[in-house]
Amino acid sequence: MISTVLVDMHMTTSDRGTILVVVAHPDDETLGAGGTIRKHVEAGIPVDVHCMTGNETRNEELKAACGVLGVRSLYLSERDDFAVSMDLNKEVVGAILKSRPRAIITHSPVDYNRNHRICADIVREAAEWASHVTVFEDAHRVDNIYQMEINSLLPHPNVMVDISGTYDSALAALSEHRSQTGKAGSFYAKLYDARTRLRGVQAMTDRAEAFMVAPLEHAGPFYRKNSVETLI
Ligand SMILES: [Zn+2]
Question: Number of structural domains, the chain?
Fold first, then answer.
C-alpha cells in the first residue's frame, strides 16, 4: 500500500515565503540542492521536502539528511524507485496546498533519468493545478519553479546559488544516505564535489548550485494575479 507521511521536523515561518523541494528519490534533494536548502534555512526561510519514492531504510536516511539540512516538513512515500508516474500529481498538489511555497525546487526535464523527467512534468502540472481558484478554496500560486541538476548537467542554467558557506553541511547530509554513498567508489560525493566546483567557477565563487527558472504556466481565467496592468 502506498502512503505519504508528513514528518514535522522544525516549526518555522517566514515573511519571505517558503520553499518546497519535490524529488523523485531520497538523496536527490541533497545532490541537487543541498547547499541551497541549507543556505535558505540559515537565512530563516522554511524549506519543506516532498519525496515521491522510498522504503524503510532510505526514508530513515532521508530523515537524517533533512535533519542536517534543517528541513521543516518532510513528505515521505513508500514506493519503488521506478514507480514515478503522472498519477502522483494529486500528492504533489496536496503538498503545495499545505506548504504554500513561493518557489519550488525540482528536477529538470533535461535529465537522463526517466523518473526525474516525469517528476519535473508532475510538478509543472501540479503547480498549475494547485493555483485554480475554481477548484480549490485554498488555491495557491507558486511564483517560480527552479529545476536542478543531478547527473545530467543543465545545458543553460540561468541561476547560480553560492553555496560556499553551506557545502560542508550538504556533504554531511549526503553522507547520511549510507545505502547510496558507497556505490561506484563514492561516485555521488565525487560528483557533488566536482559539479559544485564547476558551477562555482562559473559563478565566480568557491562553490555553487545551478538552476533553470521555469515560470509557472497559466492556461486561462482560473487564477488570481494572472492579469497585470504593465510588465514592469
Ligand atoms: Zn533520483
Answer: 1
Give the helix ranges, DSSP H, for 131-183.
Answer: 167-174, 178-181
Is residue 10 within 8 Å of residue 72, measured between CB atoms?
A: yes
Q: 27 CA to middle of ligand 1, Å? A: 7
Which residues, including other chains, have CB under 8 Å from residue 16's CB and lie 6 or more apart?
Answer: 44, 45, 102
For 101-141, write each residue's pLDDT tens digit. 999 999 999 999 999 999 999 999 999 999 888 889 999 98
* Centroid of ligand 1 to alpha carbon of 134 (angstroms): 34
Is residue 206 one of the residues assigned to a domain? Answer: yes
Distance 116 CA to ligand 1 centre (A): 6
Centroid of ligand 1 to alpha carbon of 119 (angstroms): 10
**What is the 81 CA–ligand 1 centroid distance (Å)?**
8
Whether 231 is covered by a domain: the verdict is no
* Cut 0.85: pTM above it: yes
| Residue given cell 526535464 in the structure block | 109
Dihedral (CA of 19, 23, 29, 31) sign = negative
C-alpha of residue 50 to centroid of ligand 1, in Å? 13
